[in-house]
Design brief:
This protein has 254 residues and is mostly helical. It has one domain (7-248): 3-Layer(aba) Sandwich (Rossmann fold), CATH 3.40.50. It has 15 helices and 5 strands. It has helices spanning 7-19, 34-43, 60-72, 83-96, 101-119, 131-135, 139-146, 151-161, 166-176, 188-195, 199-203, 211-219, 224-227, 234-237, 240-249, and strands at residues 25-29, 48-56, 75-81, 124-126, 180-182. Strands 1-2-3 form a 3-stranded parallel β-sheet, sandwiched between helices. Strand 1, helix 2 and strand 2 form a beta-alpha-beta unit. Helix 4 (83-96) crosses helix 5 (101-119).
């Protein structure tokens, strides 16, 4: 079992990964969830942080992010999508990085975050990509665990292929706006240390997900509302999925 005395060493590795190569100002697409709030918390101790939150009206991310940013005392800007704007942004993202619907809908909020960061004179953004693969965050992993699959191999393989999947897509959007994403959770020394943790302990309870990362976050002073918030992918927490799915069903997406 990972003892409380071991958490500080893991936290130090994560802090080092987040703070490496940071410019004087960095943007964090802040959802108010665990990963993005952790990035914002640590980065704000070293440099100026701009939190950017996008979503449809009444999207849960807007509420959580506002509270987290206030607690951290960092600058925040938010953008509320209209249905018409989402209908225009989806094909634009597809033209930049042709993909399936699941990937495409995730790129829409990333597109806006990159655009807003650039407008604010911020050329670097911190991404939470890799947190799920490193710290056992996807629901499918629990299904695989129940089926007796080799989760260590699965996690290793997914981390290795991440640059050709999610990171490749995000980088294409960032390049379009002439900004750059950093991916602290893919840091090799951090991932190698996490790999030493037995899978059952890394997994914890299916209802919680990423229990080790939550312990690390609490030790680093991440707001409790973020530490305890259940995982919600960006396209869902932002409300983008619901609108784009409806547009797709109505054949309103080009």
């Amino acid at each position: 079992m990972v003892s409380e005395t071991e958490i500080p060493s893991l936290a130090k590795l994560l802090e080092d990964a987040i703070c490496a190569n940071l410019p004087s100002k960095v943007a964090v697409p802040l959802s108010g969830g665990l990963d993005s709030s952790l990035l914002a918390t640590i980065a704000s101790k070293k440099v100026k942080v701009l939190s950017i939150t996008v979503g449809t009206k009444d999207a849960p991310d807007l509420e959580y992010a506002k509270k987290a940013a206030h607690e951290l005392g960092i600058e925040q800007i938010e953008h509320i999508f209209t249905k018409e704007e989402l209908a225009a942004l989806y094909p634009k993202c597809q033209s930049i990085y042709p993909s399936d619907f699941l990937t495409g809908e995730l790129l829409v909020p990333l597109y806006k975050c990159c655009e807003l960061a650039k407008e604010q004179g911020c050329a670097t953004l911190l991404s939470g990509s890799g947190a799920e693969e490193a710290f056992f965050g996807y629901d499918r992993y629990y299904k695989y665990l129940g089926e007796g699959k080799d989760l260590r191999k699965i996690l290793d393989d997914e981390m290795k292929t991440l640059p050709s999947r999610d990171i490749s897509a995000a980088n294409a959007i960032a390049k379009f706006h002439s900004v750059l994403f950093l991916y602290p959770f893919t840091n090799k020394p951090l991932f190698e240390k996490i790999k030493a943790i037995p899978i059952p302990e890394l997994a914890g309870e299916r209802s919680e997900k990423k229990p080790i990362l939550r312990r690390i976050a609490r030790s680093l002073g991440v707001p409790e509302l973020a530490c305890s918030r259940p995982k919600k992918a960006m396209q869902y927490g932002s409300g983008v999925h619901k609108v784009l799915l409806l547009l797709k069903k109505n054949r309103a997406l080009s």
